[in-house]
């Protein structure tokens, strides 16, 4: 078989994979190639992700309308050569997208994204979640800025510009000249030590650290209608899975109270993560970033932060598998005694200087996602008709 994908440079990485920019030689365009680690658990994760993506794609075709989930173009198993361990990696080939929301927030120096963008992104994320939950019967379980990418008119050109900003001599031609040389059936070798200059994550960081006056490469696009794609179904679950709701999900800062306390979770867990994510887009800071102390754990601190903001611990949260480890019968935390109440609206207005009307509007919407009782948390569908979403900003 002829080799088809030629790796150019690293785009990003996650817990179980590395993602590379590659050229699809047969079609002549750039793609993103996600290469899973070779351990059996990661092979299984990749196979699960492929199945879920196929389901999403089938539903998307049936339904039509705008797509908010990333498109899977191809997948195969790749045997690395002996120099690179000789083991099998699952490879997923995706449409090439632009930067993640995390990169975007970095470019805004963590002062928050323009609220107009946040409003549009929120709308699209609710559409994406409604589609995922109701049409596909899938819970994402890992919504966070790294897993939401924006589409740009020409992502390869965007990447090239990032590289050029870093170093005028660095461009695609020498990117491919250092790209891997040894070939197997479908893919050039992927573990080659690439020049760090060609690692996009590093480039972004370097632009920020060394060229603070440099024009943000996304500046020209501010007027464009920002379009998002949700990626990474690597941890997603089907709602009809018999084991649903039991295992630990979500990245720490986006983790919902029911998951911490061992109450069975469902698709509403995604709405909690979304609330945390929107707050972060508005303010540039985490809503919850718990830390362990000498006498309490990260989970203790996390629950304390939630109570400070939301006050009431609903009854169902006292019946989780781990609730007794954290709370006494009076619903008080065992290990955190001093709580400082804060109101979301006031934090947005007083700390982050949002005009009163915006602070009211955002907090009224966010509090419907940040409902401690998952049975009372709003669905993506019902949030789509929240008046704040259609408010001209
Ligand atoms: P993991 O499951 O290991 O977390 P992801 O699918 O989240 O892997 O991808 C890791 C990173 O790779 C993303 O955060 C993003 O920076 C980059 N990436 C993934 N898919 C694409 C894509 N289609 N286009 C551009 N970059 C991508
Ligand atoms: Mg990821």
- The side-by-side strand order for the widest beta sheet comes to 1-2-3-5-4
User: Could you give me the name of the CATH homologous superfamily of the largest domain?
Assistant: Transferase(Phosphotransferase) domain 1
Question: How helix-rich are the residues, as a percent range?
Answer: 25-40%
CATH class of the largest domain, anyone?
Mainly Alpha
Which compounds are bound in this model?
adenosine-5'-diphosphate, magnesium ion
| Element-by-element helix/strand order | EEEHEEHHEEHHHEEHHHHHHH
Give the number of DSSP strands.
9
What do we call the CATH topology of the largest domain? Answer: Transferase(Phosphotransferase), domain 1
- Outline the biggest β-sheet: 5 strands, antiparallel
The total count of helices amounts to: 13
How many separate domains make up the residues?
2
GO biological process, one term: regulation of mRNA processing
Binding site for ATP: 34
GO molecular function: ATP binding; protein serine/threonine kinase activity
Protein name: non-specific serine/threonine protein kinase
In short:
The chain is of the alpha+beta class and 393 residues long. Helix 3 runs antiparallel to helix 8.
Helix and strand topology:
Elements: E1 5-13, E2 17-24, E3 29-36, H1 40-63, E4 72-79, E5 88-95, H2 101-107, H3 115-135, E6 138-139, E7 148-150, H4 155-166, H5 172-178, H6 200-210, E8 228-230, E9 237-238, H7 257-261, H8 268-283, H9 298-310, H10 323-326, H11 344-351, H12 356-369, H13 380-383
Helix pairs in contact: 3-8, 4-6, 8-12, 11-12
The chain binds adenosine-5'-diphosphate and magnesium ion.
